[in-house]
Amino acid sequence: MQMIEFASKVVSTMEGRSSSLIDFVFSWSIQDSLNPNLYKSQVKKIPETFTSTEEYFSSFLAPLVEETHADLLSAMTRLSRAPSYQFSSIEREINYRAPTDFSYKIVLRKARNSTASGLVEYRPQGGDLAVLTDVRPTCISDLNRPTMPFVLAYVRAMDDAKISIRSSKPIMIEQTMQSCQKKHMDLFFVFLTNVTTNIRIWKALHPDPLLGNLQMIYKIIHMNANIYVSLQDGEDCARCLFENNLVTVPSLESYGLNDSQEAAIASCIKTWRCCHQNSVKLIWGPPGTGKTKTIGLLLLVLLGMKCQTITCAPTLIAVTELASRLVRLVAGTFEYETYGLGDIVLFGSSERMGMDDQTNLLHVFLDYRVEMLNKCFSPSSGWNTSLLSMINLLEDTQGQYGRYVAYRKLGINLDDNHEMEDENSSRGNETCEGNTLTLQEFVKKRFSVYKERLKFCVVNLYTHLPTHHISLEVVKNMMVALDSLGLIQTLLNSYDYGDEGLRGALYDTEKESEFVGHFAKLRAAIKSCLPMLKSLTHSFQVPDITHRFLIKNMCLDNACVLFCTASSSYKLNTERTRTLDLLVIDEAAQLKECESTIPFQLSGLRHAVLIGDERQLPAVITGPRGLTFLRKNLL
């Protein structure tokens, strides 16, 4: 009952304001923030059983609030080493509404001597919690001065150089800053901690009962210790047996699995295909029993069966290791190297994942994928434009060259398509300084530009597009066309045709029989290639989207297997419209149960598989009562 009483107290504190964790944090005075025993009498051990979802969610509120408080207290005790930046400018946002929403846009000055001091340069990001002071702080007393009482700031979003923040109090110094009388602004932004994960957990603990997916939460509440059995002992759904809906699991004999591992994978697959009930399965085993190998092969089978799967882990390191294992398993199984990787997506913070050192994962990393596809979708130099440009060049070489010469006479250094230069086109820019290119030079240079662009697009399209958007047959046709273009380029570069000879080889059909050797081969290669290129204009068109946000949503919507931390899965609520079928959580014993409520509530989710060992190190909880907050984690 004490848990529900505390939850009621939280709600009453928020009366008249939006019920958010930040509202609760902003209600703390500096004395509250520095009091390690602020919630000592209000946090108890989470019980083993629950009578309702309300009781279940409420039981995690007190631990979450205390953990947030403990993180803030810890950050304030390290104040002298905290990154601090002086304000460059500040202005109120349109949605500024006193006294409930003190919203500002700020610009920070670039840090000085950050490298010399040995500190890593701090870059603000959404979810950061900072304190605002009118002096560069060296001790806690600097946070609460007569001229600047204790003010916390929460970073809402980043917009180029401007940072959108919400402060706990109005920033009274703003009027002085907005005047032009002072050369320097005496206001500092001091980073304390990031509360993104805690905010997501808070929201997951306050679901909308009408809109949220609580089926898996209901399942967890009504589970008891007897439910957790080895997967090989699981039983098939009676209705699936009656309807003969059981699916045959692909053979995994070549991977050297033992009977227990094979049975575990088979049970998971059969469970996923069941639409009559929700289920939570467990793959349990001490270290060295092959859990990691089993989960990798399970994901491989799920990928092949197009199961909509979200795979989570407590840490970014664990997530990247899972993704790496799957990528290694699928390597060599695709007919065209990386075709099919578009069905796998890894998303999260590039910097925190250390993607600069994870080159083997770039082909499945969402941010990199969006960047590559954005180039392929470009209306100026992407697939559609480059394909049509190549066709026009081979069909109407004389016309293309004539327009080029006309532009040169007018002093215009743009080609007829007004294409933007990029790393592919700049190498073959036909608008060179000095003399006008000859026909042969023009054809060679422009052909090289278009061919390189098409090659770039083909490789990145079959690598990064989900297979739903690009079929294997289309990929095969693209590769044949590239080979044909490669032959034409070889013939163009291996012989000096001269302008007249090249015109004859391309156009003079009456004298075709007179052409021998290189002329005949070039003409035949072009004649063979053009139908292939034209067929691709009908059989495949890239999506008509160029905004990175829309490309990102397309990739997330059509991926079959997604990798992220349990906290980051929250993004799928707004960035993916397609429902998910199965949740896989690795190292489940190290994941806080309250954090697991985030992926458990994803839209459409019906089944979950937990992998781990409850005897391994549990999740680390900040706070004086630490591990008493957990009830066996998830296992």
Give the gist of this structure.
The protein has 635 residues and is an alpha/beta fold. Helix content is 41%, strand content 11%. The chain has helices spanning 2-13, 21-26, 30-33, 53-58, 61-77, 174-178, 196-204, 215-221, 238-243, 259-273, 291-304, 316-330, 350-353, 366-376, 383-395, 397-410, 439-464, 472-493, 498-507, 518-539, 548-558, 572-575, 593-600, and strands spanning 84-92, 102-108, 128-133, 151-159, 162-167, 188-194, 279-284, 309-313, 344-346, 561-565, 582-585, 607-612.
Amino- and carboxy-terminal Cα gap: 24 Å
Provide the number of structural domains.
3
Count the beta strands.
12
How many helix segments?
23
CATH level 4 superfamily of the largest domain: P-loop containing nucleotide triphosphate hydrolases
The chain-level mean pLDDT equals 81
Helix content: 40-55%
Name of the CATH first level of the largest domain: Alpha Beta
| Derived structural class | alpha/beta
Named at the architecture level, the CATH assignment of the largest domain is 3-Layer(aba) Sandwich
Using the alpha-carbon principal axes, give the shape. flat
Description of the structure:
There is one protein chain. This protein is of the alpha/beta class and 635 residues long. The protein has three domains: 1-206, no CATH class; 215-360 and 559-629, P-loop containing nucleotide triphosphate hydrolases (Rossmann fold), CATH 3.40.50.300; 378-539, no CATH class. The protein is 41% helix and 11% strand. The protein is built from 23 helices and twelve strands. It has helices at 2-13, 21-26, 30-33, 53-58, 61-77, 174-178, 196-204, 215-221, 238-243, 259-273, 291-304, 316-330, 350-353, 366-376, 383-395, 397-410, 439-464, 472-493, 498-507, 518-539, 548-558, 572-575, 593-600; strands at residues 84-92, 102-108, 128-133, 151-159, 162-167, 188-194, 279-284, 309-313, 344-346, 561-565, 582-585, 607-612. A six-stranded antiparallel barrel has the order 1-2-5-4-3-6. Helix 7 (196-204) packs across helix 23 (593-600) and helix 15 (383-395) packs antiparallel against helix 17. The protein is flat and about 95 Å long. The two termini are 24 Å apart.
